[in-house]
Design goal:
By secondary structure, the chain is an alpha/beta fold. The protein folds into 2 domains: 131 residues, Aspartate Aminotransferase, domain 1, CATH 3.90.1150.10; 273 residues, Aspartate Aminotransferase, domain 2, CATH 3.40.640.10. Helices cover 38% and strands 16% of the residues. The protein is built from 15 helices and 17 strands.
């Protein structure tokens, strides 16, 4: 990838001073870091004005495009009032209003919000809160957790303990607690002739067997609803969630639903678990909550769980904190994000947008090297047949040369290319994304 002097200076400074995430830094001796100077809508621009279509929403966080005027205005207004105050012993209007609006979006079922800074923090909070609930409730042996094969819930130690992605987990295995794995309802793993729903039911039978044997020591089951992201956008039938809710109720185990990636309309409903007509005991949210502007996460839970901590004893309190918990600017960005959902009727608009995007990708879906082309809401994914062990890197680089930001996932299912664009992507940008992805595919071994 050719770079100008301005770009070269910035990327070289970044390469030497910044330790980038999920990155083997040595690769950047030959693969330049992309310097971004500004962004607008679906597009990122480097120092020379070269543009890149942000087809992955900057790691799944950006909902309404970069530099969205209404979120910008809300943040400017909040800056004149309050940027931050600690939430221990203090409160402020944005965090109260956000908590009330999020609770209303669950029909009041999840009426208590505990804030963190990022998705992994939300996972840690939910795991600790479940464990502590059982201890406060006189069942201290319930200390174990269950997650799905291929699951990803973050990279802090607690979150990594319930994650099943070898690339992230194996290096740190000696530091992690053991947790149980049950089969994923990912329909790509279904036997020939088995429907997605039938496969989900069979996986639920394995979950039932595990709970029957181990429920007395199990605190919670944690799942990514409908789509498992780092597993290669593994998609599954909502029946699994219905069965999981029933089984958790039957065996006295919490259900933690991790909607860090799937929440805020990404799967076609505001929350993915709504498609199963259930509510979890704990709901983890982050990524799109601020429209991609600022770090924020929240764990929502039920009143009876909150009440188990409500006591004179400090040791029965939930002992967890973040310095920037409930940051006023981040909460204001989240409120502006919720306003846009209402003002623009985003969920309904996305249904039409998703249909048009699927139509634009017909040639791509029919490509002889493409397998398992699939979609859920505003997520599209497919596997690519390739013998190249560095396929993900080479595809990423070839896409950049064609003005696309795509970040393939390599895993057990193969090389997965996915689209998760901002909700403001227009028809011309959809056609461009589909056509240039097809061109990238033909240019990549």
């Amino acid at each position: 990838m050719q770079t100008s002097t301005r770009n070269t200076v910035l990327l070289e400074r970044s390469r030497t001073a910044v330790w980038h995430p999920c990155t083997q830094m040595k690769q950047h001796e030959t693969l330049p870091i992309v310097p971004i100077a500004r962004a607008e809508g679906c597009w990122l621009y480097d120092c020379d004005g070269k543009r890149y279509l942000d087809a992955v929403s900057s790691w799944w966080v950006n909902l309404f495009g970069h530099a969205e005027p209404r979120i910008n205005a809300a943040l400017v207004d909040q800056l004149q009032r309050l940027e931050h105050v600690m939430l221990a012993g203090f409160t402020h209007e944005p965090v109260v209003a956000l908590s009330e609006r999020l609770s209303a979006l669950t029909g009041g079922a999840l009426g208590h919000c505990f804030y963190g800074s990022d998705g992994a923090s939300a996972t840690e909070i939910a795991l600790k809160m479940s464990f502590h609930f059982w201890r406060n409730s006189g069942q201290p042996d319930k200390t174990e957790f269950i997650s799905l094969a291929g699951s990803y819930h973050g990279e802090t130690l607690g979150a990594l303990s319930v994650t099943d992605v070898a690339l992230f987990k194996d290096s740190y295995a000696p530091l992690l607690r053991h947790s149980a794995l049950v089969p994923s309802p990912d329909w790509r793993r279904a036997a020939i002739g088995t429907s997605a729903r039938e496969h989900a039911l069979r996986c639920a039978e394995v979950l039932e067997s595990h709970l029957e044997q181990h429920h007395e020591r199990t605190a919670a089951l944690i799942v990514e609803p409908l789509v498992q992201g780092a597993a290669g956008m593994a998609m599954y039938d909502a029946e699994y969630l219905r069965q999981a809710r029933t089984l958790c109720d039957r065996y006295g185990v919490h259900l933690i639903i991790d909607e860090i990636m799937t929440g805020f309309g990404r799967t076609g409903t505001f929350f993915a678990h709504e498609q199963a007509d259930i509510r979890p005991d704990f709901l983890c949210l982050s990524k799109g909550i601020t429209g991609g502007y600022l770090p924020l996460s929240v764990v929502m839970t039920r009143d009876h769980i909150y009440q188990a901590f409500y006591d004179e004893s400090v040791t029965r309190a939930f002992l967890h904190s973040h310095s920037y918990t409930g940051n006023a600017l981040a909460c204001r960005a989240a409120l502006a994000t919720l306003d846009i959902f209402e003002q623009d009727d985003v969920i309904a608009a996305n249904r039409g947008r998703a249909q048009r995007m699927t139509a634009a990708t017909k040639k791509l879906a029919a490509h002889p090297r493409v397998r398992n082309f699939r979609s859920t809401g505003m997520i599209w994914a497919f596997e690519v047949d390739s013998g190249d062990p560095a396929f993900a890197r080479h595809f990423f680089e070839a896409a950049l040369a064609r003005e696309l930001l795509l970040r393939p996932i390599s895993g057990n299912a193969g090389n997965t290319v996915y689209f998760m664009p901002p909700y403001v992507i227009n028809d011309a940008e959809m056609e461009l994304l589909a056509a240039r992805t097809l061109d990238t595919l033909d240019a990549t071994p």
